[in-house]
Specification:
It is built from 17 helices and 12 strands. It has 520 residues and is mainly α. The chain has a two-stranded antiparallel sheet with strand order 1-8. The two termini are 39 Å apart.
Length: 520
């Protein structure tokens, strides 16, 4: 029985719902983990636990985890072929309910992964064999990092923006720190959740820094510098600092946010901003650049994460290749770039392939190809959207540092850091308002990466309308206009904060629903 349990857990398999289910929902044949059982008995066990933790973390990026947020924004329009996929989050109206499949799935998958991190932490703490302790500590550092990052994502999505004055009372998400099938959680406060995040990051920093000082370690036969290296296949000290930079930006500790971000920018890891067409294509098409703080393992045989909502490349003998997207870029995002901008040239090509909607081919439309797929992960001649998961990039550190400096009143430092990013991307002239420039660069640089709504909430902004590209007006949803191309939201719209899933409230009645949503 213990061997069966080890094989299940070490494989990184994720349950589909939050581990708070009661006995009525637990099959009588389920394998129950006995508290205190030690499953790490060898270096191979440690390695398999590490693989499971990293696989769980990788599973929370790209696909619906980014697409759900992106279609909420002003940057994308639903095509008339979208079939109501992501329709409720796209409209963000009163029909966004607590049982929405996308917001519910994202909640469930994060807590499934957190269950795995908790189990890895618990197991690593039980290791006493002196030969296994160093590896177990690395495992624990990685699990603490992943748990902190995942809780930060949850807090950003299902809570109001962090405000130091109200964080002690504002409700956030449940803190589940130990695997317990029978637990019925309650929502912690924002302060409690963010305190747990920084505590986990501090633990991860200590463990990974100490291990990294001894030199590179082996991870599946590949040398890994735990202090930091470009395209690392696992959490590093630089990755910890990157999440700390996000944390401090959220909590309005701007000096520390800038410090953490600058530490990563100045790291010896070899990060480089792509500053030419060739370098951009190497980074975002071939996945061979050096911007990624982490670039997780992927292969054709294992499968890879992707964002196919915006491309859907197909082909026929008669028509050749064409896009069949459910969503396309709006005029807002396409017009946000100067023509000289490398991002516009690489991520928004016009007529790379025609766009096929309801059987007709259309041209002259800028398409979003940031996640079109890595050639090395294709199985046919058509780009399949498969990507190497890059959850953290040095380019974001430039944005965090610039915003932190600006919010702290140091506009000169903000302009310096932002200027380095804009120069590399050939972004064009500044507006003269440093914070407006920073906001625009966040949209330009992180488009497609699931960051937009958190930025809107952090700044206290609303969402403007999203008019269609002129060439695409006939193929996007526009009726009723207030739901689609004309949809606007005030900064206090309740749908900018996702609902607590109704299923979770049913099994844990003490959970309180977010304002504006029914508990049903």
């Amino acid at each position: 029985m213990k061997n069966i349990l080890r094989n299940i857990l070490l494989g990184g398999l994720a349950v589909t719902m939050l581990a708070s289910c009661d006995l009525d929902l637990t099959p009588s044949t389920a394998i129950k983990y006995e508290d205190g059982e030690l499953l790490i008995l060898s270096e191979q066990d440690v390695q398999e636990f590490q693989n499971g933790v990293i696989a769980s973390y990788r599973s929370l990026h790209y696909g619906q985890f980014y697409q759900t947020v992106e279609v909420m924004s002003e940057c994308f329009n639903a095509t008339i072929d979208f079939g109501n996929n992501y329709g409720f989050v796209h409209r963000l109206g009163d029909d966004l309910l607590a049982d929405d499949e996308y917001t519910t799935s994202i909640w469930a998958n994060h807590y499934a992964a957190i269950k795995n991190y908790n189990f890895a932490i618990e197991q690593s703490l039980q290791v006493t064999d002196s030969l296994l302790v160093p590896s177990a500590e690395i495992l624990r550092g990685m699990a603490y990092f992943c748990r902190a990052s995942s809780y930060l994502s949850l807090a950003r999505a299902y809570s109001a923006d962090y405000e130091p004055e109200t964080a002690t009372d504002a409700l956030s998400v449940p803190l589940i720190l130990k695997y317990d099938q029978l637990q019925k959680p309650v929502r912690a406060t924002l302060e409690e959740v963010y305190n747990q995040i920084i505590n986990d990051l501090d633990e991860a920093e200590l463990l990974l820094e100490e291990a990294g000082a001894e030199g590179p370690v082996g991870l599946n036969g590949v040398a890994l510098n735990l202090l930091g290296q470009a395209n690392a296949q696992a959490p590093t000290l630089d990755a910890v600092k990157a999440i700390k930079a996000r944390y401090y930006l959220d909590t309005e500790d701007y000096a520390k946010a800038a410090e953490m971000a600058e530490d990563v920018i100045d790291s010896d890891a070899g990060y480089e901003l792509a500053n030419s067409i060739e370098a951009m294509e190497a980074e975002f098409v071939a996945n061979e650049g050096n911007e990624a703080i982490m670039r997780l393992y992927a292969s054709v045989s294992e499968g890879a994460v992707g964002c196919t909502l915006f491309t859907g490349v197909s082909s026929t003998d008669e028509e050749g290749k064409f896009f069949s997207p459910l969503y396309i870029p709006s005029k807002v995002i396409v017009n946000a770039y100067a023509n000289s901008d490398l991002r516009k040239q690489v991520w928004f090509p016009v007529d790379m392939y025609p766009v096929k909607i309801q059987g007709d081919l259309h041209t002259g439309i800028a398409m979003f190809t940031k996640f079109i797929g890595a050639p090395s992960l294709q199985t046919t001649a058509n780009e399949n959207g498969a990507q190497y998961c890059k959850p953290l990039s040095v380019s974001e550190m430039y944005l965090i540092a610039a915003e932190a400096y600006a919010m702290d009143g140091d506009e000169s430092a903000a302009a310096r850091v932002l200027g380095e990013l804009k120069t590399a991307r050939r972004a064009g002239e500044s507006s003269g308002d440093i914070m407006e420039d920073i906001k625009l660069e966040w949209m330009r640089e992180t488009v497609g990466e699931g960051q937009r709504i958190n930025c809107i909430k952090r700044w206290g902004d609303g969402l403007p309308a999203r008019p269609a590209q002129t060439a695409a007006e006939s193929i996007v949803m526009s009726t009723p206009v207030q739901d689609f191309t004309g949809r606007e939201l005030a900064s206090d719209a309740h749908t900018l904060v996702w609902p607590i899933p109704s299923y979770e409230i049913k099994i844990s009645p003490a959970l309180v629903q977010n304002p504006g949503y029914s508990a049903e």
